[in-house]
Amino acid sequence: xxxxxxxxxxxxxxxxxxxxxxxxxxxxxxxxxxxxxxxxxxxxxxxxxxxxxxxxxxxxxxxxxxxxxxxxxxxxxxxxxxxxxxxxxxxxxxxxxxxxxxxxxxxxxxxxxxxxxxxxxxxxxxxxxxxxxxxxxxxxxxxxxxxxxxxxxxxxxxxxxxxxxxxxxxxxxxxxxxxxxxxxxxxxxxxxxxxxxxxxxxxxxxxxxxxxxxxxxxxxxxxxxxxxxxxxxxxxxxxxxxxxxxxxxxxxxxxxxxxxxxxxxxxxxxxxxxxxxxxxxxxxxxxxxxxxxxxxxxxxxxxxxxxxxxxxxxxxxxxxxxxxxxxxxxxxxxxxxxxxxxxxxxxxxxxxxxxxxxxxxxxxxxxxxxxxxxxxxxxxxxxxxxxxxxxxxxxxxxxxxxxxxxxxxxxxxxxxxxxxxxxxxxxxxxxxxxxxxxxxxxxxxxxxxxxxxxxxxxxxxxxxxxxxxxxxxxxxxxxxxxxxxxxxxxxxxxxxxxxxxxxxxxxxxxxxxxxxxxxxxxxxxxxxxxxxxxxxxxxxxxxxxxxxxxxxxxxxxxxxxxxxxxxxxxxxxxxxxxxxxxxxxxxxxxxxxxxxxxxxxxxxxxxxxxxxxxxxxxxxxxxxxxxxxxxxxxxxxxxxxxxxxxxxxxxxxxxxxxxxxxxxxxxxxxxxxxxxxxxxxxxxxxxxxxxxxxxxxxxxxxxxxxxxxxxxxxxxxxxxxxxxxxxxxxxxxxxxxxxxxxxxxxxxxxxxxxxxxxxxxxxxxxxxxxxxxxxxxxxxxxxxxxxxxxxxxxxxxxxxxxxxxxxxxxxxxxxxxxxxxxxxxxxxxxxxxxxxxxxxxxxxxxxxxxxxxxxxxxxxxxxxxxxxxxxxxxxxxxxxxxxxxxxxxxxxxxxxxxxxxxxxxxxxxxxxxxxxxxxxxxxxxxxxxxxxxxxxxxxxxxxxxxxxxxxxxxxxxxxxxxxxxxxxxxxxxxxxxxxxxxxxxxxxxxxxxxxxxxxxxxxx
Length: 1004
Known about the structure:
Elements: H1 7-19, H2 23-26, E1 43-44, E2 50-51, E3 56-57, H3 58-68, H4 70-74, H5 82-97, H6 99-105, E4 107-109, E5 112-114, H7 127-135, E6 138-145, E7 154-161, E8 164-171, H8 180-190, E9 206-210, E10 215-218, E11 229-230, H9 251-257, H10 260-269, E12 272-273, E13 286-287, H11 291-307, E14 312-317, H12 323-334, E15 357-361, H13 365-378, E16 385-387, H14 391-399, E17 404-407, H15 412-421, E18 427-432, H16 441-449, H17 459-467, E19 476-482, H18 487-493, E20 495-496, E21 502-503, E22 506-508, H19 510-515, E23 526-537, E24 544-546, H20 547-560, H21 562-581, H22 585-588, E25 591-596, H23 599-616, E26 621-625, E27 629-632, E28 635-638, H24 639-643, H25 650-655, E29 659-664, E30 677-683, H26 688-695, E31 713-716, H27 721-732, E32 735-737, H28 745-755, H29 761-772, H30 781-794, H31 799-819, H32 828-840, H33 849-858, E33 861-875, E34 884-886, E35 903-905, H34 906-917, H35 925-940, H36 945-950, H37 955-973, H38 978-986, H39 988-1002
Parallel strand pairs: 1-6, 8-9, 14-19, 14-22, 15-17, 15-18, 16-17, 18-19, 23-31, 25-29, 25-30, 26-29, 30-31, 32-34
Antiparallel strand pairs: 2-3, 4-5, 6-7, 7-8, 9-10, 10-11, 12-13, 20-21, 23-33, 24-35, 27-28
Helix pairs in contact: 5-6, 11-12, 12-13, 14-15, 21-23, 26-27, 28-31, 29-32, 31-32, 38-39
């Protein structure tokens, strides 16, 4: 005999795990007479017991009611048609409200009330509640003939609870040449009649197509329009499932998901029906969790119930992961989390919930609505959700018995203060910090207070800023959801491993989201353009300027010139109109976003695009988004005045067919979901988290409009494909922080600051004493003003000395602020200096001596030539599928000293600039200089440079080490300059001269 590799073999495997045997082993004998309520096994059902009209297993339906609710049945059994009466009532309600309603609310017939499902007990539940749950009959039936119209049509497997079907499955086996993704899904779509009662919407909670490797699910069968989602664990941060040494890859489905406890938990706490009872059933949406959503919520609940309060959790879930649902499921279940033992941190009793309240920090109004709807679905008590915008609101909400409190990122600091005050209460704080605020006075005023561009405050920074200098209280646990964790976020919320690295508590990667089709690959079709231009000197004088700063200023000057922007606006529309508008992408509804360097540039782009659109006779409109008021060319602009409608309407107006292009600077680069976006035109430096968040505006899938990866297009005037790859790589799979920030830098910084003479330590002590005694602010000012006077006048600091002190003071405040909450020890002097410097820094003026000179530079040149050439066309940027380590904050003290300016006369700067940026340049002396400087930086950054060369006293070994370092760097750079590498490798004279030159430059 050989192994059975058919579909029937898979059926047998699943049945055997669920019931302890399969029908082939039982030789046709039913175990219906021997239901074991005391164990975890299902019972096997008989296909002949399935009633096609009412879609129930009559054997177990009536057996459950007889065993558990005999008295209620007796109320109706006096009537001759009592069974039909119950079934008719059952059918009427299930068609109107769906199976979830009946499982949760039960069935009322005349004066009888039937509980159709006994919920799973808690550890603290009474013996009767536990016994009731054991009375539920979980059964599985193979080969169910379900169709009244076609008696030969069968569903491979159906899972029932108390005779009521909850899950159907079509099984395939790879070894027979069929799989779930193609054949199983096709069978449901084409060969199964969704009009039959069993397959009607909301009669079951989910339908699975399963093979030995993968599983797919849907909650609504509607022929070709049926949409299946993967229900897989993921493999190597991508789609599919990992190898299972003990069986099929999909064994988790029947071994973990289909257990009695698991199914009860899913029904009670996860599956939900969107909409209200006023809506017709077919217009509502049934949500069944994806695997990672189920997994993360369960793991969070399990960890909290075992370990108690006082923990931080980082959930790195990509866009497309369904974070909103994960957060709402977690919020509800955390208020019902009980400690498993009294030794858990914060546990009051195993009979009392661990958390008194769950606080959700979010800027998404939809999340507020979603949480309220979730509670209505799951909870007997409805009015337990409330907003809180202050610590007073928090206290009042708790007094009123509110269990879920929703606040914004801007109000988070006040809520933290409230948590600190209410030490007798436990809190779970869920932070949806991936979405920053889009508008509103609170947003603008906070950004202004932080000294930032009105659009430029990152949500993760807001959260970390709010938690600075606040020790994490043991009465609160923090659950942070983000797709793109920064190093500070990883260190604040991540789990530290034995080797010192920090990792997320749970991961659903961008790679998996792309491969599973929940988001699109925005890097699939990337085109870069390189600017080339010439400037000319417009004055007869030849003053000197700082070369590096001058180059930067000149590039910015050229790129924001109206003529430059007009050229790029024409290129944008030359692509957008024929390739997006005229090709009717996304059924004629496709849109684009233009990302600019600043609000001033956005305004100039808007005007240029509008002018070109009108000149071409196109009918579509454009819209602009920015915060506050901006003066350009003597005219004051606001978003509302330019668009002709309120900025609160911008998002909705852009969604209409009339508007096709959105121009932005920083606003709407994060937290903006517009699934019709398919093109992006970038004229802004993008790096790190901002690059990922910005380009990810394009990745939202839109099945209704047939949006595919091929529809996406990015045209980038500013960045290279290498820049974008570097930005995306850390977030493609898992992000790991390589090590904790070295806090000893704070000792070094404090020593330097103390020695400067700007303040006396007694002044620091006095300031902190008065500050925390809540003395009048005018009593604080003299202390700060004394130090500020020393800084500006008394000590005779040069401008460079002043800059050096201020940089180090800011670095101390930033690093201590981020580390204070997680330091394993308390350093009182650091804490005091932190508060003193926070108030001193704003009073330390620094004058940029080069600013006026550089303004003079811009008045000394004119733009004579501007053009663009394509560097990469429709390029696919491949990302690294390995886990990526990111470095902690720089643990070296920073300052203004040691950065000598290189000065050139204006003629040389103009010549250098043209040589560097004009398209026809060859290997000029200046180009060689740029190469030398680039190589020098790479050499100095080499891991062996400091130890084996810079600090090596042995001259012979030092020379050998330098040659090895240079060889490494040249091997890395050879593709960038093949001519140079050939000379280096083959011309001995050139090699020696080059080696000596690089050694001198690197040793400077």
